[in-house]
Amino acid sequence: MKLRCSPYNPVYFVVFLGILVVCLTSFAHAQCQADFTYQSYSSEKKSPSGKIEITLKTSDSPMYTFKVYQVEGAITLVQTKQASLRDKVTIEHLKPSTYFVRIEWGESCYKTIGGLDGIIITAKDQ
To answer: How far is C-alpha 93 from the geometric centre of its chain's CA atoms?
Structure first.
């Protein structure tokens, strides 16, 4: 029995890999789509009363985990909260500082809000 190699086998293989990559990438991308907006509110000088309200604009996931990090010399996890986003999610009791929020859902989906500048909670003028 002879095994014959066609010169087209590598071409078929490359085409198959290309189709596979395109299909899996678009599936994974569609699975992790979500759009959030946020609003930050100042804190009292004497007590940590700042807050961040997060609103879901579009997504399909029923449950989200919110991890709030404070950036002050080092990055420190301050709060973790789980919620379904039917309404606004409010993260409260924040002192004046810079924060960012990592929102996680599904198996490996996440989005960080706050960008490179962070979410700045200022102290209210009294």
So the answer is: 21
Tokens linked to 61: 């996931």
Residues with Cβ within 8 Å of 39's Cβ and at least 6 positions away in sequence, in order, are 52, 53, 55
- What is each CA distance from 12 to 8, 15, 20, 25, 56, in whole angstroms? 6, 5, 12, 20, 43
For 2-40, give the DSSP string. -----TTHHHHHHHHHHHHHHHHHHHHHHHT--EEEEEE
Task: Per residue of the chain (126 residues), give pLDDT as tens.
Answer: 565 655 555 555 545 545 555 444 444 445 788 888 999 999 988 888 999 999 888 767 778 999 999 998 899 999 999 987 666 899 999 999 999 999 999 888 999 999 889 999 999 876
Convert 82-117 to b/e letters by CB count within 10 Å (16 or more is b): eeebeeebebeebbbbebbbbbbbeeebebebbeee
Q: Tell me which residue has tokens 């379904």.
A: 84
pTM for the full model? 0.71
